[in-house]
Amino acid sequence: MNLAHLISRWRRADVGQLLRGLAAFGGAEVATRLIRILSVVVIARQVSPTIMGVAALALSLFEVVRVLANAGIGQRIIAESEDQLAATCNTAHRLFWFWCCGVSLIQLALAALLHFLGMGEIAAMLAVLSGVYLFMPAGLVQVFLLMRGGCFGIIARITATQAIADQLLTLIFVLLWPSAWAIVLPKLVTAPLWLLLVRRAKAWRPVPASGLTPWRSFLGFAAGVLISELVNVARTQLDKLLVGALFGVQALGIYYFSFNAGLGITTSFITALGQVLFPYISAATSASSRACRCRQGLWLGLGAFLPVLVLQVGLAPWYVPLVFGEQWRGAAPLVSVLALGAVPMIFAAVASAWLRAHNRPAVEALLNSIATAAALGGLTLFAGLGLMAAAWAYVAGLALALIPASIHLLSGREGIATLADFQRVSA
């Protein structure tokens, strides 16, 4: 397979849809990050570290609980056949209400526990933020229909609009009322804005005449996706707890900064690759077309991110002190190491999209569980050699678990290619 033939096949498969989706998410992410940087600068000057810590703890707990809302219900809408779509949407709409109300109750229960433990202010914030889940069910079917239709530009604009509104409201609230509540409340205030934008972008109402899809048919898919999401959150949160326990608070601060300045910069873009690729693969009408689209996603991901990653790793000693301040110069090597974690995540994003498109979320959950165990296990085992060695072990665990497994999954009879095919194409 030569390069000209590969490009010809890509053109026939409408790779433009994939490129437009990634470009839309990328542009929205850049705009959001610029506003977020401004917000962080202002917040840091207006509130004390104690206030920041209270808000961070409340929002961290909120983010952990919110993962439960990613139950995989909507993925069935994307992958469903056209003749069953209306019935599936009807059932998904009901399940969204049931599930989101349940997640809201879980967060209220957590708030009650924190209040009992004497953390009254954080408990009150969590109780207020539980209202976010009550706005979600009325717009989630519309979101997944937009994804099914490849309307990623619209989704990216809605996401960016909500995020920018969140940051701007935070700026205003902090200036008027310097407190943890000023940082937390915008998360609830912008939820109605998201719902309004989604419902304006996609008109949908339940169609009773179409009936319902049996709710049990959602269970296997939803369980696999939910486990994958929970495991991913565990991988991105528990490493911080382990570093704090093994090295102390000061080292945790250095690691937290390095993680966000390294791997954190590319994570959102890699997540967007998976979000765009899943409906792109699902929309294909034949096995060969799906394989071609999956190949496009992997090569596009590697082609887009690897040059950026090389620059990020190589230039860290220069841009870290320049952008973040001279006090962070010593963290530059750690930033470079953790940034390398983006490589296995590219393979994992493509493999996850492939598995979801083929209704195999249980395999995705297993893959992510193994990767999480390998990364956190490596970090713990090599902690005795220092923070840098622990970070290398974390990244190596991800790479050893995700890259070979992803290539194996994608090289099956219906997969994208064998390793030899990769070598022939690149030759």
Give a brief rundown of this model.
This protein has two domains: 199 residues, no CATH class; 212 residues, no CATH class. The chain has 19 helices and no strands.
Task: State the helical fraction.
Answer: over 70%
Number of strands: 0
| Domain unit count | 2
Number of helices: 19
Spatial shape: globular
Instruction: Tell me the series of helices and strands, N- to C-terminal.
Output: HHHHHHHHHHHHHHHHHHH
Low-confidence stretches: 413-427
* Strand percentage: under 5%
If you compute it from the alpha carbons, what radius of gyration comes out, rounded to the nearest whole angstrom? 22 Å
Structure description:
With 427 residues, the protein is mainly α. It has 2 domains: 15-213, no CATH class; 216-427, no CATH class. Helix content is 81%, strand content 0%. The protein has 19 helices and no strands. The protein has helices at residues 3-12, 15-46, 49-66, 73-79, 85-116, 120-129, 137-148, 152-176, 180-189, 191-201, 219-247, 249-261, 263-282, 287-324, 332-339, 342-357, 361-381, 387-410, 419-426. The longest helix has 38 residues, at 287-324. The termini are close together. Mean pLDDT is 80; it is low at 413-427.
List key phrases describing it:
81% helix, single chain, 2 domains, 427 residues, mainly alpha
How is the secondary structure organized here?
Layout (H helix, E strand, L loop, with lengths): L2 H10 L2 H32 L2 H18 L6 H7 L5 H32 L3 H10 L7 H12 L3 H25 L3 H10 L1 H11 L17 H29 L1 H13 L1 H20 L4 H38 L7 H8 L2 H16 L3 H21 L5 H24 L8 H8 L1
Helix pairs in contact: 2-8, 2-13, 3-6, 3-9, 4-5, 4-7, 5-6, 5-7, 7-10, 8-9, 8-10, 11-12, 11-17, 12-15, 13-14, 13-16, 14-15, 14-16, 15-18, 16-17, 16-18, 17-18
